Amino acid sequence: xxxxxHRLRMxxxxxxxxxxxxxxxxxxxxxxxxDLSSHLDRLTTTMLAxxxxxxxxxxxxxxxxxxxxxxxxxxxxxxxxxxxALRSWRPVLWGMFGACAAVGLASWTYAAVVYGDLGMTNLVxxxxxxxxxxxxxxxxAMGTAWLTRHPRLSRPEQALxxxxxxxxxxxxxxxVVDANHFTMAFVYTTEDQRxxxxxxxxxxxxxxxxxxxxxxxxxKEFRPAQxxxxxxxxxxxxxxxxxxxxxxxxxxxxxxxxxxAWQGTCNNTEVLNFxxxxxxxxxxxxxxxxEAAPYKPDFTVLCVYTCNDITVSDSTIRNHGYVQNWRxxxxxxxxxxxxxxxxxxxxxPFTRDPALPQRIDDMLDAPLPAPEHLFDPAKEKPTFSEExxxxxxxxxxxxxxxxxxxxxxxxxxxxxALDHFREVVGTPMLLVIEPDELQVDDAVWDSLMQxxxxxxxxxxxxxxxxxxxxxxxxxPVVDLLPVLREAxxxxxxxxxxxxxHWNALGNRVAGEEVARAIAAQYVPGAGKMLPQP
Length: 533
Known about the structure:
By secondary structure, this protein is of the alpha/beta class. The chain has 22 helices and nine strands. It has helices at 2-10, 13-36, 42-46, 51-75, 81-84, 90-115, 122-142, 144-147, 155-180, 191-202, 238-241, 250-261, 281-292, 318-321, 327-336, 386-396, 405-425, 437-440, 442-449, 461-473, 481-491, 504-521, and strands at residues 206-207, 210-211, 229-235, 268-273, 299-305, 429-434, 477-479, 522-523, 528-529.
């Protein structure tokens, strides 16, 4: 051991620090600038396939930064004269550190203006992470003698170190468990719900001129059901939000068709739309348990998207990017704190024009004029550029690879999540499979297969596996792939231009098909399902 430390002292720490500072810190600064401008810059999106490696880079930077901050605090206990004595390195180091701080300030400004959030957005976290890189570089360059000498720690410092180390080990163990077995033990609130709260703030509380309700959802006001009412809870991701004005939303269409089908059976039929963009299986369980359950729905519709909804175990940086996302934090919050609907950490006040209706309920008799492109897709502007949209589609091809080991694990966790969801809901339910655009549009599929081996992919793989699960468990299911393919061939585009969300036609086709399936299988008032045809 003495020989090891003797050789360690011989390592040219100053040279290593020079290399790390000259290469690592500028690269991190460039990556952060790309992240800051990702809403305008195409390069970040086209690097989707490399995102896991960027996540690893961020994790490494966070680890180095935390270690550097701890070491600097220990070193600074006895003064900072050694820091002030630095001469030749000072302009370069403080220049890089200043650049990091400038990017961090820009991130905070962006988060405040766009999201009204001065708390812990991804941009703020990335900025702090980048500053930690800068501190790490400074520690390497300036702490040559100190890094080759074992620091003497007081007893409180040793206790703090052991406590932090133990917490990190427990957190790592919880992460491993969470990545290999579906559990809600580490879920108090989901990141998707918090992002949706910020998204509503960014939209100033309305979409296409129609306001979100007081519960934060894109629907009429939710009210307790009266005797004789039939209430359906609609739980979905951005497909449920619709990306179209409220009257053409998929849940609105389904509600209109169910009212026609159940006329004379139910006093009133309500489809409560609990959709949250980017929400996954854990978010669906949270919404069903805490948001939908108080309204005592008679029936539940769960819509799952055949791409990111399959990925139950999320390994991206955001899981540990926030302290509130750590498994231990979520575990203790779940045990000792009642559920609270997620909200932005800091909100910029805004008010809807008093001259306009304040609720969707007041707009039903006089809806807003439909956008021109709603019924003429040729007049619609593309959501993304062709390059960005193509890169997103390529990224989602991984869900169609039957031999991909990681996807087999994800499907196993996904079906465990479905089992858990059914236990939480407890009422009759219908599973709706939302297909991706590349599964519906033949032209899009052909363009993706150019230069690739089609035998590597199974185009309807998610549907095959989900339908097999439903047959084995007896879960009623509606696969929207056939009807959307038929509508695409017969009536034209069912997705927005260069976007994987349904346009007005797609929303109508999907809503009518789901309503038909519910009306054919569910007996209102009896609370039971008929055998699926």
